## 1
Amino acid sequence: MINYKRKDNYSKWYNEVVIKSKLAEFSGIKGLMIIRPYGYSLWEIIKYNLDQILKKTGHNNAYFPLLISKSILSKEKEHIDIFSDGCAVVTHNRIKKNKNEQITIDTKSKLKEELIIRPTSESIIWKTYKRWIQSYRDLPILLNQWGNAVRWEMRTRLFLRTTEFLWQEGHTAHASKKEAILEAKKILNIYTDFAKNFMAIPVIKGIKPHMDKFHGSDITYCIEALMQDGKALQIGTSHFLGQNFSKAFNVKFVNKNGKKEYVWATSWGVSTRLIGAIIMSHSDDKGLIIPPKISPIQVIIIPINKQKNILISKLSKKILQILTEKGIRTKYDDTDIHTPGWKFNEYEIKGVPIRISIGDNEIKHEKIEIFRRDTYEKVLISIDNVNNFVPKLLNDIQENIYKKALNRTKNLTLKLDNYNEFKNKIKNSGGFILSHWDGTEKTGKQIQEETEATIRCIPLLSGKNKQNGKCIYSGKKSNCRVIFSKSY
RNA sequence: CGGGGUAUAGCGUAGUCAGGUAUCGCGCCUGGUUUGGGACCAGGAGGUCGUAGGUUCAAAUCCUGCUACCCCGACCA
């Protein structure tokens, strides 16, 4: 049972759901979490599906080292600011036992040059690209890496911001600015579709204001989603890096006219934060609700009193086989440790979309009870119809939770031109507020101080967004609305 | 990095003010009965009370220092 309710204490509810659903737990070291098998299988499914899409669009996976030398990381001037995030540094390479049999660092083993645990891999990759790229014929390089990174964050939260996180980071190199920008936008669209089609999360595409862009990028594109408590969460970014890294690492190519040019670059990523977004977008006071397309278990079959009637386990196994053959991730929980009631609760907390229970009633009436997690509805379906009904129901659930999230986002997205109204909205209901902004960092900071809301992005609304107006705070000229929200 | 909280069995906790045999629930082990919404009975195992020191005949409890984690905020691809 989940003790906290969303409306009473959202962040305690969130923690309780993560832990009781067995997605992850605290490791005992600040900011480092243990991703449990259930959570990791969810990540594997996300990873598998996104990986397929990236491969279909021509990207290849590679792997670069975890440790980066300090000197390489310092090449790109702006990029050094990433140090301000805090990094983990390797300074020694040996440990030894002291008199009390305790482990100490062998001070004689101090490294001449410290190594940084990658906070992101642009530097090592661009150092490598210098060797890989000579001619326009070597371009584009469309490379992706699945791995981990470490950022020494002050304030951590399970999945949303952990010291170590798992992610994919794409790093591409192009012969022209136009092509690189197209790539960055293409990835943004892939992320958007992935969020919608797999995770059932509607997002807003946008550009980060200049003061919030990634250090070392020219344009930072992002997707922002709205959580159930009215706060925004950035769930993916795609950067047009311009020639910043190619200049820092002196990566030039010879173009068709025989002239040398600096290479154009992008980088982009999504992380285990996606799992946090899924939890906060869909789940309810009873626990997780996982979108069927990515749910590690799509259907759970629970037998009732199977000891009394051998037909119960026979029918259960038959249904398991039918659904498995249909490609549905189905689990038959025939353990004797717990009662059916315990299992009902357990798989509800875990957010399994469909539950089938099979007992004497099902045998007698040749109909089985099907329960859907998102609405709590139960229906009886004849056994012959199961193989058609279940896939359709999985789709219905996927669509339903997307619609729910979409409606919530729409209802909490408002255009406002009055600052008092703005303050009230942010304070009371949260949500995305579309308002004019004069483009200055100072105004952004003032608004943040007074309301806790920040500029999430300048939305890309295919021209519709161009509209002259006055900044909601300063009253100065503005030619488009930006999205303000409190955020994670 | 500022503020708050916590640390007792695998987990969650009582006991701390007022020093005197380590509390309860879950879980675990054995046996039996159960099983349609977190089953029940009987028996059993499990503890450097975060850490270092101090006061005392006696410390989970009082005093001092330290450490770790969690929460809130600031920061933040």
## 2
Amino acid sequence: MGTETSRPKISIVRADFAAVARLLASPARAAMIEALLDGRSLSAHELAAVGSVRAPAASEHLAALVRGQLIRVRPQGRHRLYELAGKQVATALEAFAQICPTTPVSSLRASSQAEALRSARTCYDHLAGRFGVALLDAFLEHRWLVRSSPGYSVTASGQRTLRSAGVDVNALKRQRRVFARSCLDWTERRPHLGGALGAAVTTALLDRDWIRRRPQGRGVVITPAGKIGLSQAFRIEPVS
Amino acid sequence: MGTETSRPKISIVRADFAAVARLLASPARAAMIEALLDGRSLSAHELAAVGSVRAPAASEHLAALVRGQLIRVRPQGRHRLYELAGKQVATALEAFAQICPTTPVSSLRASSQAEALRSARTCYDHLAGRFGVALLDAFLEHRWLVRSSPGYSVTASGQRTLRSAGVDVNALKRQRRVFARSCLDWTERRPHLGGALGAAVTTALLDRDWIRRRPQGRGVVITPAGKIGLSQAFRIEPVS
DNA sequence: GGGACGTTTCGGTCCCCACCGAAATATTGC
DNA sequence: GCAATATTTCGGTGGGGACCGAAACGTCCC
């Protein structure tokens, strides 16, 4: 370590919190990026609606977010689809959300829409709502997961169950991200499954077409095939 | 899961990114909170200097940060000492920093000051500079730590070595925080030790008075006792 | 008590930025 | 080519907030 050989001149740097924070400080931009947190790609038109602004304002907001490396754009025909610049952005913002206050969303007048959300939806990139809670309940009840110090850890039988559903637990453990964490469900007030495992299960269920995203919003529906598959794989009866 | 008993009315909430982001969006406030990230308590007077503003502006900034629950205040005589509101704030901002660009700091004209920082300093709550890098080098060289998927994991001999230095590895593993991560050193361009272990080692060395914080800034000095202790405990020769 | 110092409140100025409408540019489908 | 739609650029307006100096309030120490 005492190697005092010729070293390039000192350059001390510091993280520029303010630059990125300024990007999130606008309600319109915050809403846009929050809508992208679960990994979807949305057009400028859709994101304008998300941010409650007109197209011109949305265009400038999106350009700023791209400049700040938080999102990237993928032109597709006359649309331009925006998505998160990388998984690290989602991870960092998920952590950031831990110190953010929560505000009630009162814009769900239609109770059928609220009910659909409450039944099953995504929370960033994992499953929430009654379905998400039920899933975690099943995992714990069958001892596929057990409480561990940061979140949960998977048992041998859990690993087999997950493998049969197309989830490679060992690959997940190699991720930097917290393996399996508890995430408090806002409608159910009980925990659902987050972290790398929560995201992987969601991806696997989407891949098998056991669940599908509703066209807009965060709602999720369970397909007829899903009802059968879920009851066989995880021994749960999906909620109505 | 099918327990459809009488449930209170639905309340859907969402994280308000914008509210907290607005607090970090001002360069003055960002600098202030960054200065508090390593756990120190600083007075309003000192934080005004950190943020390069006069006392009135600093006072308003600090009031806003307190209102936003990012910091808390502890009156002490005619001073008011400000500190982070909790460890979760430090953890969340450490993650947030991962997606922030880094800007060079050119205000270190006095090369002796720059040299001191380059020698040993804290990076948030763990050790950096030549000393921090040397520490990680020693841990890897003696195989007390080995590369693992998220960061590093400790070996049996490493655990013994750390215990003799006053660090309880098992207690650290129970923390939610990433156990031991690699953090790129800005002056050395090589990794030093971050995460829960990095913080715990720093605390242990401060407790034994092997290192001391310089009165201002992030610099750290190694005490005479530290030179002896460090060479015995970790088999490293501290940098000049 | 009185001076010194740390901190906050108040009043006022200035600038940045978020927004819009109108118009320009790009792409699709007929 | 032409109409329709998606997106961006431009010019201009308005509001919020970041800052300062002056002054008020609190605390310490002689």
## 3
Amino acid sequence: MTEYDAFKELLESDDQEQLTPKQQQIVQAAIEMFSEKGYASTSTSEIAKRAGVAEGTIFRHYKTKKDLLLAIVSPVITKLAVPFIAQSFVKQVFKEGEHEDFEELLRTILVNRFEFAKKNVPLLKIVLQEVAFHPELQDRYKEVFRAEVLPHFERFISHYQEQGLIKDYPTETVLRLVITTVIGFLVTRFIIMPDGEWDDEAEIDRTIDYILNGLQV
Amino acid sequence: MTEYDAFKELLESDDQEQLTPKQQQIVQAAIEMFSEKGYASTSTSEIAKRAGVAEGTIFRHYKTKKDLLLAIVSPVITKLAVPFIAQSFVKQVFKEGEHEDFEELLRTILVNRFEFAKKNVPLLKIVLQEVAFHPELQDRYKEVFRAEVLPHFERFISHYQEQGLIKDYPTETVLRLVITTVIGFLVTRFIIMPDGEWDDEAEIDRTIDYILNGLQV
Amino acid sequence: MTEYDAFKELLESDDQEQLTPKQQQIVQAAIEMFSEKGYASTSTSEIAKRAGVAEGTIFRHYKTKKDLLLAIVSPVITKLAVPFIAQSFVKQVFKEGEHEDFEELLRTILVNRFEFAKKNVPLLKIVLQEVAFHPELQDRYKEVFRAEVLPHFERFISHYQEQGLIKDYPTETVLRLVITTVIGFLVTRFIIMPDGEWDDEAEIDRTIDYILNGLQV
Amino acid sequence: MTEYDAFKELLESDDQEQLTPKQQQIVQAAIEMFSEKGYASTSTSEIAKRAGVAEGTIFRHYKTKKDLLLAIVSPVITKLAVPFIAQSFVKQVFKEGEHEDFEELLRTILVNRFEFAKKNVPLLKIVLQEVAFHPELQDRYKEVFRAEVLPHFERFISHYQEQGLIKDYPTETVLRLVITTVIGFLVTRFIIMPDGEWDDEAEIDRTIDYILNGLQV
DNA sequence: TATGAATGAGTCTTCATTCAT
DNA sequence: AATGAATGAAGACTCATTCAT
């Protein structure tokens, strides 16, 4: 398996493929309802009804309602960091010089996360809502971020700061500004105003431009 | 009463001053619990307990649990738009030339919203969480935004675009980028990492800089 | 005061005249609501609202909700027996020979109770409904019946049986048949089908006829 | 199945036979308590306790407390009209000449309803009490009466009036007098004075006699 | 494995009643 | 006398979870 395949697999791996049909129905129903009404306001009986299974069946697969939530949300948190996890991705940037310039890197990440968000709106809604109330999720999030995202990002930033491409702000500030802008874009695009008329290509370009200019020396 | 006084009053008016003591205790307890555990996961009996009142007392003042939420959240939504509502503010910008340049305007808004956020973290958490699940809140939000914020913002943007201070992006794009960056800052500062070590002054400066550069022609 | 006056007074005495205005409002509201929704389904706060008084005011005049019910219902039970209580009534029948025949007696009672029912539909509804669930009311009812109604009635029945005007059934049977027919008429007329088109005079005549024929030897 | 069997089945069909054991316990407990204390004054927790089930179990079988009431009362209302619904009954009267005379018809109905009442005192109490406060029940009652009872009754009355057996009163008046007398008897016998010493056979005879004489030309 | 009846703790809300003003 | 805020027990109903089938 080439590194590219690993990367692709990570990105595309459908966790649900390994689930029994009933389980898939349960997870699907739970995703829909959690994202519509929130975890706390969704009852297991509603999930069972929408999934077309008996109430007891949910608890055969997931010990508690919270387990079901974690089973759904945990892999999403992992996937949020996927582009930074993939070895091939990291190597490409510095070794192969493909992403030599900052813009290319930004675009890769943004487009990639854009596509990811596009396909996973309900899941992202759930993460956004529930992370606030479940310390386990926060921990998991922080861990992934600290272990997978931060190191690479810091390397990128130092690298481009050394090259004089971006301002000499503290890493965390650069990080905050960039991530904030990216997430702000995706949240606006897919969650707050998903029904607006969007010229996605142009907006992506402008957002990249905004970040680049915003950070340039 | 001078215009400044009106402005200040708007900003500082404490809705809770008109409430009976028991009501204040209830509202206070509800704010704490809603922001900690979320509206749906907070029981009225818990609120009563923390407020030190009988459960029935809650319902004497608020017909339903949801009424209590709305009583708490609605004024916050209004206040979010306060700097744009205040007449004195708008006039100053264009008439008195005080905020002649874009930077000044941005700083006024950012500092002002920063102070507001600082004093209202739990309330903002509640708004952020609950807006997603309560259409009434969404409607109220949209209305305030469309009526109070949008028109002024559009005037600012056109004004500065004509002066060649900011890029010729569609209004909505400029709006999105600015608001996203501001909110992203405040959310990171007060909600995601409130316990980090922050050099607030520097961060505000950098954020303003980022926006200015990001949008400049 | 003549005996007739006493009779009249008994029939017309308005218990509510001695009540304070607030009390009258309370009683009036309670009568309306008890008869519409039943005692158990009517809340004191509803009564207070409809009466236009504070909730506490009810309890200043009536120690408990049940006291209010009893204050309303007790006098009605007494009044149900009024024609038999009035001395003048009893005397008239036998002394003055006015009601010499059975038909005259029946008509007097029926017309009199008809007028009483007509003016007191809500009160009668309440009695009918609540007697079943409040032993105090049952006791009060039985006492009045045994003390005031039964003796006179028995005298009437014996009297007419001796005269060969009515069948030689046991007193209780005659009583049951007569009372049942009278109450059945009034309940049908005023409670079950108050909105039907009634030729009251004719129905009264037919009902009397039915009883007379039904009992005649 | 002969017509008689169908008739018998209608009369005896026990709706509770199709219920699960828990459901039977619930219904049984509810019947007892509703008839003792009234629907509004009976709490679901009391029913659960007396039924020996968890409170939640009630709501698994009956969506609301009112549903439980309707499930109990609705079939009773239907059964009240059963003797008129049974085809065999109607046919017998006119075709087979069995009930040729009015007395026979009255006796059949009265004895039959007497036995029904005897076996269903608590249910009849509930109907009598709750019909007043639940429009659904009133509607259901009126419908059954209009569709099943009235037409047959009118035929009987016309038939006997043509034969000169009963007075030429309006149908509704005859109906009222007969029904009133029958119900009055049953209510007195089973609800008001169930503990008195009753010579049922004699009372039935006298009641029939009373009706016959009362209506005869 | 899947079911769904059963549970009883817990939910929001209402209630009759009290009491300081 | 009248008020109405406050109470906390009780009400109908829901919930996540269990378990016998």
## 4
Amino acid sequence: MKPSGLRSDRMAPDGAPSDGEPSSALHKSRSAERVLALLDTVITSGAATLTDAAAEAGIPTSTALRHLRLLTNRGYLVRDDRGRYSVGPAFVRIALASFQWGPYARLMAAAQPGLQRLAEVTGESAYLAVRDGQEAVYIATVESRRAIRHVGWVGKSVPLEGTAVGEALLSEASALGVRPKAVINTGAIEPDVTAVVAPIHESSGVIGALSVLGPAERIVGRRLEVARAAVVDVAVSTSTSFGRV
Amino acid sequence: MKPSGLRSDRMAPDGAPSDGEPSSALHKSRSAERVLALLDTVITSGAATLTDAAAEAGIPTSTALRHLRLLTNRGYLVRDDRGRYSVGPAFVRIALASFQWGPYARLMAAAQPGLQRLAEVTGESAYLAVRDGQEAVYIATVESRRAIRHVGWVGKSVPLEGTAVGEALLSEASALGVRPKAVINTGAIEPDVTAVVAPIHESSGVIGALSVLGPAERIVGRRLEVARAAVVDVAVSTSTSFGRV
DNA sequence: CCGGAGGGTTTCATTGAGTGAAAAGCATTG
DNA sequence: CAATGCTTTTCACTCAATGAAACCCTCCGG
């Protein structure tokens, strides 16, 4: 019950894609940033005490306490009898709402059948990923049914740099109608994991990526080719089915 | 594509159950509250422009702009080409994480089979609800398979006051082992909707409620009794199965 | 081609809201 | 019961958030 580990450090606090603002640029909202940081650490770590959360977010405990209280009052967090904070009902409400409408809901819906098919055809776990700044986030999956399989990456974020998903998500929107190319990589995040990835297009560019993830020694030769073909096929059909919703 | 309506107004901003603080009590974090309010309105409304969101949250546009920018930089929101804000990848990441761990994840997992069984036995939609301040939030469902059925309340919040869920969630934790009582109500939120609800217990008290919701004219006589019995049965078995996880 | 309306964005002087060091509580533990 | 570790309260200082006003768009209708 102490998850940890699933959390990759957030990107540079300014968020601007790529230019050197003097780091503490013009008047941002400090308390607000900190509150969000606390919300993030508490939720992605599953549960945290005041001191843990404060340390993780780099905030003095007295200040962190005030912020955590605010979040608790609003129902975004709850405090259990042992004093540990974790997700609250109000956050769950919003989280659920974010899946019903909003751009990602559409994408997830459009990708669902494709993920299913990928898992069946390749026998490996299939994931849907989207870009988040300089990272990629896995937002949906259909797992392989093998005993040895890739699991638990939904909600995880990985760097774009040096990963297959990253390359796919950054690939220039090849004119619509042109088949995208699959990207293949082994061991970028974890050794012995091979990723076969293809981008999902839309008129405005790349909006997501489909990944097939599995043990490196299994995704080779014939099976690698099957995966490569399947991923590209499904990416194309997902792109079109997303277009007409 | 303009959902609206699903949003019930939040409770009193200070969150303290029931006492008249002088409204601008001791040093809470204004900007943080506003940022959270904006996040909430934007996400629960699906998509909103600067002016809409600012108006809805009661904030001057210049300030709202700064806050929305912060949220966008962090990836919690995105801005589409038409200038409308909606959920961003970073928020989705956290939202997903909140389902994997955290207290509600456990509850949802424990309740899933029960919801399934309720939907089968009663032929109506079954929901799981939890308390959020002075409201109840529906956080999971298994829908009826009838043509006419109750749908779309996941993520919705309703007042505790005067509703069946409310009564169930507020019911005193009758000593463990004692069968809970079902609460039945018609038309509290929408006319022609009947709710049959029973509380889910844990040692510390009531932690959630199971609701069977359907058209009032269908849930009567024999079928009402079936629903009442089923809801209580399933609530009890969910309570125990939640206890030993 | 112009004018005006309805967004969005920037500026900047003002001040009160957020800050955090320190001290005081409150459990747990040896 | 002294020691340790976590939480909570206090309070004086000041920097960070604020919002009215001015500016800048783009989109319309005349």
